[in-house]
């Protein structure tokens, strides 16, 4: 991943403590954080306790400080608390606190929530309420994940919300839409987001990710467009 260009990774997911079919406690959790850090990829959204998990990761690009926070819901077994390692818990209070903390050290705040129901292109009302809350709290961009299929895009008070980018690398080859996703390429001029591009992808049975072909790419983008236009 480091050679591919990743330098930051959201780890606030329901899979962060997975360890095959065995129970290995928190070993897999800490191994993941340690291995990412070892190769120069900063994990965001998890830590030794809730305070650590809530901390933003800041990357400076051309003099602009981009602050990233990530929070997740869905499986209490991976939630951090005051003295328990795990992920930053996505709720209203934590979301506001994380964004406010990031705002103090960043010029642009990007929120990466792990949220929503699987397998549906439309965000539920919980996602939409949290997206509104994030924007009101000062988020400049919201990029969601977890749903395994691409979801709608919405603009809230000038802030883009990408509810779900689909699967990038995931062994869910029983359904075509679970082998599809998009890479989000965002262009900033100073602190202003001036453009974005969705690059459709396809992950093969061998786990390799490819840029989707023309026909498949159009189908993926059309599904996102339809879901976006259908938002109530």
Automatic annotation (TrEMBL):
PANTHER family per the UniProt record, alphabetical: POLYGLUTAMINE SYNTHESIS ACCESSORY PROTEIN RV0574C-RELATED
InterPro entries: Capsule_synth_CapA (IPR019079), CW_Biosynth-Accessory (IPR052169), Metallo-depent_PP-like (IPR029052)
Residue ranges of the TM segments: none
CDD domains: MPP_CapA
Organism encoding this protein: marine sediment metagenome
Family of the protein in this entry: Belongs to the CapA family.
SUPFAM superfamilies recorded: Metallo-dependent phosphatases
Capsule synthesis protein CapA domain residues: 1-172
Database matches in SMART domains: PGA_cap (SM00854)
Alphabetical list of Pfam families matching this protein: PGA_cap (PF09587)
Name of the protein: Capsule synthesis protein CapA domain-containing protein
